[in-house]
Amino acid sequence: MTQTNPFRNRPVAVIGAGVMGIGIVQVALLAGHPVHLFDVREGAAAAAAEQLAATLAKLADKGKLTPEDVAAARGRLSVASALGELRDAALVVEAIVENLAVKQALLRDLEAIVGRDCVLASNTSSLSITAVARGLEAPGRVVGMHFFNPVPLMRLVEVVSGLATDPAVAEAIAVLARSRRPASSSTASRGRSTPRRWRCCRSRPPRRRCWTPACAARASAWARAS
Question: Of the candidates 93, 53, 89, which has an alpha carbon nearest to the alpha carbon of residue 73?
Fold first, then answer.
């Protein structure tokens, strides 16, 4: 039975205008979402928006997008100058520095801004979702939404539940992810955000995580075949 995407065409906010953040913005825009992009660094979000516009134009030149697609996507993107401008978001995805205290502080600030039904997702690849959500008034709405780099090309999305994550929240994010790309779901344990099957496929037994493009490509192929 086909599940309804609860985020269809609803506003998405992305925090962090680095490589991962720009990639997530591109995917969300082309999926039809209005997107707010925010970065605490002055001018970073605006520069990322310009970079993304150039990327979309190149895709149109190659025939992968129509000029109308590009114009519509650009029209759905807004650059936020403050966190308060994200208040209407149905989903916030943070893709900021991999620092637990910084992520926790950001989510605490967001709790005072966004609506009670807004989902707070972290793109972390190394931190515990349980720890990221610790201290929040509503830790149940925090979930891991880990994209692989480069986001527009690597189709796999990993949905990670912390110990406090509401199962309905994790399922909603999984449905959103599967509407456009393969998704794998897991529950974080012992502080890890990535399940064992995504560890380096060259390690026997696996001793460390590996985010090389080759390994991520094999993971994506596995997800498509399963």
Answer: 53
d(CA 94, CA 129): 12
Cis before 205? omega within 30: yes
- Contact between 223 and 156 under an 8 Å Cβ cutoff? The reply is yes
pLDDT digits (tens, 9 = 90+) for 114-154: 999 999 999 999 999 999 999 999 999 999 999 999 999 99
Give the CA angle between residues 120, 196, 166 to the nearest 5°. 30
H or E segment and range at residue 157 = strand 157-161
- What span, in angstroms and rounded, lies between the C-alpha atoms of 70 and 178? 23
Q: What distance in Å separates the CA atoms of residue 58 and residue 206, rounded to the nearest whole number?
A: 39
Classify residue 199 by its DSSP letter. B
The pLDDT value given to residue 182: 55
What is the C-alpha separation between 52 and 28, in angstroms, rounded? 12
CA-angle at 159, arms to 202 and 45, nearest 5°: 100
Q: Which residues are catalytic?
A: 146
- As a whole number of angstroms, the distance between CA 34 and CA 77 comes to 6
Predicted TM-score (pTM) of the model is 0.82
What is the pLDDT confidence band of residue 4, given thresholds at 50, 70 and 90?
A: confident
| Per-residue pLDDT, 179 | 79
Angle at 178 (CA atoms; ends 176, 184), nearest 5 degrees = 110
